[in-house]
Amino acid sequence: MINGLNGGAVPTVDTESAKQTFLALHRAIQAGTVAACHDLSEGGLAVAAAEMAFAGGFGAELQLDRTPRSSGELSDAVLLFSESNTRFLCEVSPAQAETFEAELKEVPHALVGNVVPEPQLRLFASTGKIERINATIGDLKAAWQRPLGW
Questions:
Q1: Domain ranges of the chain
Q2: May I ask the CATH architecture of the domain 15-148?
Q3: Beta pairing, strands 120-124 & 131-136
Q4: E-assigned strand segments in the chain
Q5: Does residue 122 contact residue 60 with C-beta atoms inside 8 Å?
Q6: With bands split at pLDDT 50, 70 and 90, how would you rate the model's confidence at 13?
Q7: Residue 91: which of 118, 136, 44, 51 has the closest Cα?
Q8: pLDDT, tens only, 43-99
């Protein structure tokens, strides 16, 4: 126990599954189906979505109930911020979706949301239409850069 909190298990990497994921994603990128891609290893899904929005200047709407998971119920906090190797958020145009899906058919994947023209990030709870995050890209970027503003 540290600071009154019990720690969880440190994530481990299933090397065979990781290899299959990397190979499938590489095929999808080589096929030209991926417009943008970000790993979920530092800050999880919420941070990856925000950083992608910063770079592209667009917003996104994501549904946590669509996120792939191995088993059991996970809290929205875990779904938003879980840092795991071999997980990625990919932007794929609707015209490339079928090819992308075909390249990733052997590994867990899902359509979890959409890019939107407004510079707003909206992430909806796993149990319905409750917004867990609804913030402008400008506000998120300012918060993200604040620790380095010395």
A1: 15-148
A2: Alpha-Beta Complex (3.90)
A3: antiparallel
A4: 36-39, 59-63, 88-91, 113-116, 120-124, 131-136
A5: yes
A6: confident
A7: 51
A8: 999 999 999 999 999 999 999 999 888 777 788 888 898 887 889 999 999 999 999
Q: 132-147 burial string, b = 16+ CB within 10 Å, else e? A: bbebebeebbeeeeee
Q: Cα–Cα distance between 140 and 150 in angstroms, integer?
A: 18
Residue type, 138: G
The tokens describing 103, both together, are 């390249």
Q: What does the pLDDT read at residue 6?
A: 67
User: What are the backbone angles phi and psi of residue 10, rounded to the nearest 5°?
Assistant: -70, 135
Cα 5 → chain centroid: 26
Q: Which residues contact residue 84 at a Cβ distance below 8 angstroms, ignoring those fewer than 6 apart?
A: 11, 40, 41, 44
Scored b (16 or more CB within 10 A) or e, 54-73 reads beeebbbbbbbeebeeeeee
d(CA 48, CA 150): 24
